[in-house]
Design goal:
Blueprint lengths: L1 E7 L1 H4 L6 H12 L3 E8 L3 H13 L4 E5 L10 H8 L4 E3 L1 H16 L10 H5 L2 E3 L3 E3 L8 E6 L2 E6 L3 H16 L5 E8 L3 H14 L2 E7 L5 E8 L2 H13 L4 E3 L3
Parallel strand pairs: 1-2, 1-3, 3-8
Antiparallel strand pairs: 4-5, 6-7, 7-8, 9-11, 9-12, 10-11
Helix pairs in contact: 2-7, 3-4
Length: 253
């Protein structure tokens, strides 16, 4: 099963913010058996987002996660752009508006904002593409959206990491299902990646795992991450590698 991720924000493209969201989402998808084939980052621009979403849908991934740009400010245009990409009109969701109002009322009571009333900027967050299912934001104002489009599960999430992570775990993971993959991280005590390569190729032929290797420069170790459906598969692969002279130091995730 294939997946793609689109992260949105001018701050990501200017280097002012590190895109930790895509790494978190990719790891979560991988652990559920989805292979992330592409991660795209685009600006807070409607046309750019529309193009990125349509291009991703053209590759027909099973899951597409879009993160960022759901707030009340002028550059929060993601939900509108997604609706345009899918040719679905935007519609006001009264339940989402009520939850947004409750959120700001709570902030007002706690002294974080000086006005609890719904204004146009806050109301803007309650508009979702027609046919989308609103995703509850347990720690923020802006709701997310779940849309099934031509058998592609599309999830639109906020960009604030705290909000995105909570919604990904509570709203996305239960919907995508899939097998629970295990990741195991090791340091291989070997100085030359070219000598490790044929051993890894043989391991891939013998075992139902995926292997990622990452050299640590011309030093003592090479990083290895094994992906499998069970700890037994991982352990068998480790025993094979060690039997071929590769000493592994466990760096459990």
């Amino acid at each position: 099963m294939l997946a793609e991720i689109i992260t949105i924000g001018d701050e990501l493209l200017t280097g002012n913010t590190v895109d930790s969201n895509s790494a978190f989402i990719a790891r979560g998808l991988t652990e559920r058996g989805y292979w992330v084939r592409r991660i795209t980052t685009v600006a807070d621009d409607v046309d750019e987002i529309v193009a990125a979403v349509r291009e991703a849908l053209g590759r027909r991934p099973a899951v597409l996660v879009v993160a960022g740009g759901l707030g009340p400010t002028h550059d929060d245009v993601t939900m509108f752009a997604v609706s345009k990409a899918l040719n679905r009109p935007m519609e006001l969701r009264e339940e989402s508006l009520r939850l947004i109002a409750d959120f700001y009322r709570k902030l007002y009571e706690e002294g974080f904002v000086d006005d609890p009333e719904i204004n146009e900027a806050r109301k803007k967050m309650a508009y979702l593409p027609k046919g989308a299912e609103a995703l509850t934001n347990p720690v923020g104002a802006a709701p997310g959206a779940y849309i099934l489009q031509d058998d592609v599960m599309i999830f639109v999430l906020p960009g604030m990491p705290r909000e995105m992570k909570a919604m990904f775990e509570q709203e996305v993971l239960p919907r995508i299902g899939g097998r629970k993959f295990i990741q195991a991280k090791f340091l291989a005590e070997i100085t030359d990646e070219s000598k490790l390569a044929p051993i890894l190729r043989e391991a891939l032929k013998r075992f139902n795992v995926r292997i990622h290797s990452s050299p640590k420069g011309f030093g003592r170790y090479i990083g290895i991450i094994l992906f499998g459906e069970s700890r037994e598969e991982i352990d068998e692969t480790v025993r094979f590698l060690e039997a071929h002279g590769i000493k592994l130091e466990d760096q459990r995730l």
